[in-house]
Design goal:
Layout lengths: L1 E7 L5 H14 L4 E7 L10 H17 L6 E11 L2 H13 L4 E6 L7 H6 L2 E4 L7 H19 L7
Parallel strand pairs: 1-2, 1-4, 3-4, 3-5
Helix pairs in contact: 1-5, 3-5
């Protein structure tokens, strides 16, 4: 299976880069992983709703340019469906069984995802109703994908 993670914003912190590197290495046993980091737009302090919408649309255009027609797109969205780790593993496995071999996860910038990206998504997934820094979220997503494969293969994982 091919997994692509498209994320808005550069990872600057060494500890996050190290964690991303570690999970990327671990996932190499299970899938082909590709990560695309897109620049985020600077949001001015006290930005108006219109300015925020324009920023999300600009970031959304960059995201959409990296999505191919054959990709099954999973948008990380607060209004998406929440799954347990086991349900997430089953979801990924079922997509593979149905012939979906190009999964693409999309992590938006600090303002979230544009409506165009959400409309393109085949599925909307919510990890939690809490807000997380989008740089940290990439590590969390990689860990859950890794955990999903461990569960699929019947390998031990921390419950």
């Amino acid at each position: 299976m091919n997994i692509t993670i498209i994320s808005v914003g550069k990872i600057k912190e060494k500890y996050l880069k190290d964690a991303i590197g570690e999970y990327s290495k671990r996932l190499g046993r299970y899938c082909k992983l590709d990560m695309i980091e897109l620049p985020d737009e600077k949001t001015p302090d006290n930005a108006s709703e219109k300015e925020e919408l324009q920023i999300k649309e600009k970031e959304g255009d960059l995201i959409l340019k990296n999505i191919k027609d054959n990709m099954f797109v999973i948008a990380l969205d607060l209004n998406g469906k929440e799954l347990t780790s086991i349900s997430f593993s089953n979801f990924i496995n079922e997509l593979g069984v149905k012939g979906e071999s190009n999964l693409t996860f999309v992590i938006g910038g600090s303002l979230g995802l544009s409506s165009q990206v959400l409309n393109r998504a085949n599925y909307k997934l919510c990890f939690s109703k809490m807000t997380f820094p989008h740089q940290l979220f990439k590590v969390m997503l990689l860990e859950q994908i890794y955990r999903a494969y461990r569960i699929m293969k019947g390998e031990p994982y921390h419950k």
